[in-house]
Amino acid sequence: SEDFYDEALKERIDYPVVKDELNPIFEGCYTTHSDIKKANRQGENLLLTAEALATLASLYGYSYPHSSLKEAWEKVCFNQFHDIFDGSAIHSSYEYSEKLGEEAKKTAQNIIEDSLTSLSSHIKTDKKNKEALPLIVFNQLGWLRDDLVAIKMPQEAFSSFHLIDEKDNLVPFQIEEKKLVFVAKKVPAFGYKTYWMVEGEKAALSEVKLSINKEGKMESADYLLQIEPCSGVIRRLYDKKMQKEIFRPSSLMEGNPDTYSIDKASNLLRLFKETPHSMSSWVIGNIEKVVNLSNGCQIKIEEEGPVRVILGINRSFNESRIEQKIIFYQDLERIDFFSKIDWQEKGSQKEGIPMLRVSFHLNFASPEATFEIPFGHIKRPALGEEMPALRWIDVSQIDYGVSLINNCKYGHQVQGNIMSLTLLRSPYEPDALPDLGVHHIGYAIYPHRG
User: What are the Glycoside hydrolase family 38 central domain coordinates in residue numbering (predicted)?
Assistant: First the structure.
């Protein structure tokens, strides 16, 4: 390739130069056919994890699975063919692509399990107290990490126990749905940390500053979050340490919470209706109707413990239903949102195309939008265009910002202080029913200083 450019420069040196990206085009493709988008994200994440752990294990005698990884990557990359990945192929093609995605996923999971088994066999887990069960937490990423651990309770688990780390410090935990849940702190890059379940009475912990009530108020040492019980939207998010209102105030009258404006609220789910148009899988058409999904919500406390609290929000519209969990942590600065969406909205040439978005209204004076792209990030004007990004976008000012992170989506919008994630679309061509059914979607907000 170097010779080619040398020859080209001999002919002329004033070639036209493109210094910016060529997006957006066919912005509907960022969301259409959510199944293939999720399969791609899972495949990429699992295979990168498999490569990292297999590489570490190979340092201790594990045979690195070159051919298996190559074959799995070829299946993931095949599904990135533009008519498949952008959701504009016929229905039957996705049956084959789903099979490829599942095969790649299974290969990666097997390699991960084998690598972890090999690595664990070289780790000494002896403790002075023989009545202790070790738990090894691995970090497959290249930076020091705090994150949630949620594992099935081991069969060997004691009926009563407390959890300690390598320095015998007590670790807060809770058991929910037969899973042990705790936060692993400062796990080294490409490394591990060992914890022990020690038989005996559950030890008392220092004061936990984590609370939730049935009116939708959630509070930790870092944040105060207020959910509007009737609509399920976020009315307020306050950073206690920075003394900052993160979201735009949504009350029309200061001090009167009953006068809030739904259009200014956050975690606002909105159903859009595009007018009928050609190339419905490829193009987001003119919007003729927008409905805030704010009526008839039911909220309830689903978990309450020293590690996390969870508020469940259920809502129905038309023939569809959304079950959402908002997760607030004691020792993590992000707030997670996990949604199970039974999507029964159908697009047609007569009725148009339904589309679902979630939006957050920030409270910044001079916001700047940044989008993750392959191998880097890019700043873009916050003009409300549908733009592609990988796992996150960020809106910040000089001293503060908020990232919006997701586990399986690609279509985003930023318009001034409003950041949005497109969750689902139902075009009608060439696949008449691309996304009908149940979807599991995760996203998170991560407020940060600077």
Answer: 27-101
Domain boundary among 176, 199, 222: 199
Say how far residue 150 (Cα) sits from the centre of its chain. Answer: 16
Question: What's the chain's length in residues?
Answer: 450
User: Residue 282: how many CA atoms within 13 Å on its side-chain side?
Assistant: 11
Distance CA 147, CA 160 (A): 25
Minimal CA–CA distance to 432: which of 95, 100, 31, 89?
89
Peptide bond before residue 24 is cis, with ω within 30 degrees of 0: yes
Amino acid identity for residue 226 in this structure? Q
Range of the domain at 95: 24-117
Q: Which of helix, strand or coil describes residue 392?
A: strand
| 176 DSSP β-pair partners | 179
Q: What distance in Å separates the CA atoms of residue 172 and residue 180, rounded to the nearest whole number?
A: 11
How much is the CA Rg of the chain, to the nearest whole Å? Answer: 24
Element (H, E) at 9: helix 2-11
CA neighbours within 13 Å on the CB side: how many for 196? 19
CATH number of the domain encompassing residue 244:
2.70.98.30
In eight-state DSSP terms, residue 129 is S
If asked whether residues 166 and 221 sit together in one domain, one would say no
Question: Distance of CA 142 to CAs 2, 112, 145, 185, 188, Å?
Answer: 32, 17, 9, 15, 8
pLDDT digits (tens, 9 = 90+) for 285-326: 999 999 999 988 999 999 999 999 999 999 999 999 999 999
How many domains does the chain divide into? 3
Cβ atoms within 10 A of the Cβ of 223, count?
A: 19
Q: Which residue has the tokens 């259409």?
A: 32
Q: Tell me which amino acid residue 76 is.
A: V
Which of 44, 96, 20 shows the shortest CA–CA distance to 408? Answer: 44
Q: Which of 33, 38, 36 is nearest to 433 (CA)?
A: 33
3-class DSSP string for 342-362: EECCCCECCCEEEEEEEEEEE
pTM: 0.93
CB atoms under 10 Å from CB of 9, counted, come to 10
- 82-129 residue pLDDT tens: 899 999 999 999 999 999 999 999 999 999 999 999 999 999 988 766
